[in-house]
Amino acid sequence: MTVTFAQKLARLPQYEAGMHEDAAREALGSEDVVKLASNESPWGPHPAVIEAVAGAAKGLNRYPDQHSRRLRRRIAERFDTDPARVAVGNGSCEILLAAAEALCEPGDEILFAWPAFSIYPHLAALSGAREIRVPLAEGYVHDLDAMLAEVTAATQLVCVCNPNNPTGTHLPAERIAEFCARVPDHVTVVLDEAYIEFQTNDDPDATVDLLADFPNLVVLRTFSKVHGLAGLRCGYALCSAKFRGAVDAVRQPFSVNELAQTAAAEAILHADDVAERVERTIVERIFVAERLRELGLEPPESQANFSWIPLDDLDEAEVIRRLGEQGIVVRGGEGLGGPGHIRVTYGTRAQNVRFLDALAAAT
């Protein structure tokens, strides 16, 4: 008898993460690799975070707190809310996947802009819901009016990635508020803000204030980017207690490991470190944008820690290949829903100069 697998596996797109540095070194045949493919911070965690993780490692013979109480309390204190209104997960991806599992069934609909975060197509495939993709408007921004026009009685989940990955564009909190006010109450709006600290349109907490007005809103954030904790995978949602209970119900126990909980609980105490990282990133963002324009390339204005670069008539695969020959690893737009582009994370000044020089030679 032949083993059979669930039909949903055939519907699942393949999620391709940015190449790990070890794999990049092997693939490019060089130890001198600059990885700008995964929107990671080029700077490691705060020293106090490293110290806290080292201390927690002594207790790895014990299971972590299943309910992440200390971490949820620290997040709640940071945002002046109730810990019952904080969900944490093994990266924000886990919360997104759990939301689809908890909210959606066959016959329901999940709505999102495209291109956007490449995990979104997995939500419908896993839950059995139907996905609705709405093209971005001119300027690579979310077309909120077009998204509203697609909302039906079957719509259960709407994802708004802001700043948007992979385009780096951002809509101000005022626009998000107007959108939420027009979304029917039965629809859960997930505002995916993995890069919110890097934008300069608003105070990063402006959208958090919307939670009081819209019970169906979920604000999703992560420690992976600005806090420099991508290797430990910890994300969180500011949400209703009912939403938290629902996503917790469908996830495996102990999904956030002890080191991740410890690191995130310490990292959130260091607002000064976040501000410094953001400032350094914005300096590099301006530097890279100016150099790209000198090369005749016109990326949209980034409000994130990466640039979405249209290649015009250049061949995407050839540009990536030539950058790779110089030890530069970037993400191709083909796999992110935007063929003819590359997405490039801002690194240190030395890394950015090396990328720009290699790009100039490749174009």
The fourth-level CATH homologous superfamily of the largest domain is Type I PLP-dependent aspartate aminotransferase-like (Major domain)
**Based on DSSP secondary structure assignment, what is the total number of beta strands?**
12
Helix content: 25-40%
Poorly predicted regions: none
Q: Structural class from helices and strands?
A: alpha/beta
Rounded to the nearest angstrom, the distance between the terminal CA atoms is: 55 Å
Do you know the CATH topology of the largest domain? Aspartate Aminotransferase, domain 2
Mean pLDDT across all amino acids: 94
Class of the largest domain in CATH? Alpha Beta
What oligomeric state best describes the polypeptide chains here?
Answer: single chain
H/E topology pattern: HHEHHEHEHEHEHEEEHHHEHEEEH
Largest sheet geometry:
7 strands, mixed
Radius of gyration of CA atoms, rounded to a whole number: 20 Å
Strand content: 5-15%
CATH architecture of the largest domain: 3-Layer(aba) Sandwich
Shape: globular
- Placed side by side, the strands forming the largest sheet appear as 2-8-7-6-5-3-4
Number of domains: 2
